[in-house]
Amino acid sequence: MTTPSNAPGTPASGLGHDDAGLICGYVFERSAGGGSARALDAQRAAAWLTHRTASSAGFAWLHFNLNHAQAERWLVRHAGLSEAFYETLKDGSHSTRIERDDDALIAVVNDVHFDFGFEPSDIATLWISVGPQLVVTARTQPLRTVDALRTAVRAGQSPRSSVALLEALMRTQADGLVGIVRGVTTRIDRVEDELLSGRLDHKRARLGVLRRLLVRLQRLLAPEPAALFRLLQHPPAWMAEDDVQELRGASEEFSVVLRDMQGLQERIKLLQEEIAASVNEDNGRSLFVLTVVTVLALPINILAGLFGMNVGGIPLAQHPHGFWIVVAIVGAFTAVAAWVARRRKDR
């Protein structure tokens, strides 16, 4: 498997993984001919942050690995982020949300690992701080969405603003979720085909894993509606109206994917109920057969027990046809028991 470009130990933007935990960094500069992206390492990023002014054109995107011991210290020393961002890193709440903190946006986004294997544990958190001139993203595990966005930037894509970068991140994540939904749908289709063909095997366990995955994704990825509503109604002054509309469109696209996940959960639930009903029916059939066999064997067991007692006075002991008489009696009782069992089955 190819090592993800934002994995620990991977060179940052081709400039080498430095001692600040910076995975990749870019400064996006606007010009009459369009936008361009220039790669940054930690030293150049610190210099850019030091010399920027309120009237500076363009913005920077810095992506950090929080497992690096120096990452948070570098951010505190150079980035000038709000205290709310650092509190969010430590508060332990991983629900997806985008909130306004004075003149900045603080976002918590959950995404799947780069080597996602359709397991509920393959989900990690991305913390984002968005200002008019600086976007900072930080994570502890390699994530698909950030790697896809980084690849797009290296291919020449240049967001027009910091909010446009956040919007691109959300749309990229929505596209990744569409792929997950398609993958889960394919697996469910396969299970359904095998169920219809009568091969149950261990499909209940597989469906349970998929259902837990969808529930966890929906619980972690669904944005908090109240926080998003407040942001869209009262955005910071530096946010352009076009950016607000794009962000609203990205959130709606995200909601569509989450509704698809809800539909898949209902489908899995119906399949699980169908499999459980089939298993119960098979168990009931097996129990009925066992009961019939037990009832049919009851007369001969009773008579064998009675005639097997070593006591005097056993009937037909001296009769020349005693054996056949006993066989006839056992056969008659067995036939009656079989007739009763057949009537109950027909009912």
Automatic annotation (TrEMBL):
One Gene Ontology term of the molecular function aspect: magnesium ion binding
Entry's family note: Belongs to the CorA metal ion transporter (MIT) (TC 1.A.35) family.
Keyword Mitochondrion: no
Keyword terms: Cell inner membrane, Cell membrane, Coiled coil, Ion transport, Membrane, Transmembrane, Transmembrane helix, Transport, Zinc
Coiled-coil regions listed: 254-281
Organism (species): Variovorax guangxiensis
Protein name: Magnesium transporter CorA
Taxonomic classification: Bacteria, Pseudomonadati, Pseudomonadota, Betaproteobacteria, Burkholderiales
Principal cellular location given in the protein's record: membrane
Entry's Gene Ontology cellular component terms: plasma membrane
InterPro entries the record matches: CorA_cytoplasmic_dom, CorA_TM1_TM2, MgTranspt_CorA/ZnTranspt_ZntB
UniProt topology in membrane: Multi-pass membrane protein
Domain of life per record: Bacteria
Listed transmembrane segments: 287-309, 321-341
Pfam families the record matches: CorA
Subcellular location: Cell membrane
